[in-house]
Write a structure and sequence with these properties.
Elements lengths: L1 H9 L4 H19 L9 H8 L3 H9 L12 H12 L4 E2 L2 E2 L2 E2 H12 L5 H10 L3 E4 L2 E4 L11 H23 L21 H25 L35
Antiparallel strand pairs: 1-2, 3-5, 4-5
Helix pairs in contact: 2-3, 5-9
Length: 255
């Protein structure tokens, strides 16, 4: 909880504000996902599960859902960047090509940007410093979509990434062993200060190689890039990677 509380405090969200949000989510999750099999969910059962009074539960359930960010809003720009790097029409040997704005870039956005206009996508990519524009051409300068520090989109990415990780952890704690999802890490706890920068660079470089190869494969399995793909339902799946570092309070470690 420490990183979450740190983030909340930095953004002026006090305990009472967080409590009200958490209370609403407790009630919603209990009501929707913790019903007794074969029976209709009741306010009394939700009260027992959550510890929230029946009057408050009724009030929460009668209110419109809390405003939610448009689903995967930032993914349209991310999708364009991924396609720019993986679709051989817009890249060569995995390297994104400079694109003519009126023709190639417009085609890229029309294919992968959903209902967002090429101009809107270009403005967003320029805003976050992802592209370099010269005359009538535009070049991709980044490996992935990363919003600017402190922007609303960056908090959306934080929310998505944290939820994805916690969903996997919660699933693996409560499922049969054969149904566990990918959950791997590489951790060393006696690294000297002097090697941390090199370790971080190597981890980042190798992670990008791995993620780019996965992206190439998953692009072939996604209806956005393969509209003729057959199958039912609509699902979101992927792999996330992150680097962490912090000092270890261990007086036994030596130089």
């Amino acid at each position: 909880m420490r990183p979450i509380v740190r983030l909340l405090l930095r953004n002026g969200i006090a305990l009472n504000d967080f409590t009200e949000i958490a209370k609403s989510i407790y009630v919603t999750v209990a009501f929707e996902e913790f019903r007794t099999p074969g029976r209709k969910q009741s306010l009394s059962n939700v009260a027992v599960l959550t510890g929230v009074h029946r009057r408050e539960i009724k009030k929460i359930l009668s209110c419109p859902p809390m405003d939610e960010v448009a689903p995967f809003k930032h993914n349209r720009a991310a999708r364009v960047i991924n396609a720019w790097r993986s679709d051989t029409q817009y890249s060569q040997y995995g390297k994104p090509l400079p694109l003519d704005i009126k023709t190639d870039f417009t085609s890229l956005v029309s294919t992968y940007g959903g209902d967002v206009t090429p101009r809107t996508i270009l403005q967003e990519l320029e805003r976050i410093g992802a592209v370099y524009r010269k005359n009538s051409t535009v070049s991709l300068m980044v490996d992935s979509y990363t919003p600017t520090h402190g922007s609303a989109e960056l908090y959306e990415v934080f929310g998505d990434s944290a939820a994805d990780l916690l969903e996997t952890l919660e699933h693996n704690l409560n499922c049969e062993p054969e149904l566990r999802r990918l959950q791997l890490s590489v951790v060393h706890n006696n690294l000297p200060d002097e090697v941390l920068d090199d370790v971080e660079v190597v981890c980042q470089d190798r992670a990008m190689v791995f993620l780019n190869s996965l992206n190439e494969f998953m692009t072939t399995q996604d209806r956005h890039s393969n509209p003729n793909l057959k199958g039912k339902g609509r699902n979101r799946a992927g792999v996330g990677m992150y680097f962490f570092k912090h000092p270890v309070d261990d007086p036994g470690s030596t130089e």
